[in-house]
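REQUEST FORM: STRUCTURE PREDICTION
Request ID: SP-0412
Submitted by: Lab K.M.
Chain count: 1
Length (residues): 96
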Amino acid sequence: MRDRFVVRVEETQENGLKKDILIRAVLILSSCAALIALPIPHVHAQSCAMCYQGAAASGAQGGAALRHGILILLVPTLSLFVGIFALIYHRRNVAR
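STATUS: Completed
RESULT:
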């Protein structure tokens, strides 16, 4: 009986170690990708010239409407993002 407990503890530690290595690898890769993309000037200026001209020509009311539209479209996006991560967090300990 005691041997089974020792084996399960060792398996749990190995799984935890593998998970830590995976998390570190993902963080390192995403950091490298961000550092590579950071100095590129075109990454910061991803806008269409036609869209910019149309928004500039619409005047102050058009600009305000565009800003409000962006904020309104941000609400469902953020709610989906938060909802998915809340579901993942809630089900983190479910047996596989």
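NOTES: The chain has two domains: 1-46, 48-96.
Reviewed by: T.R.
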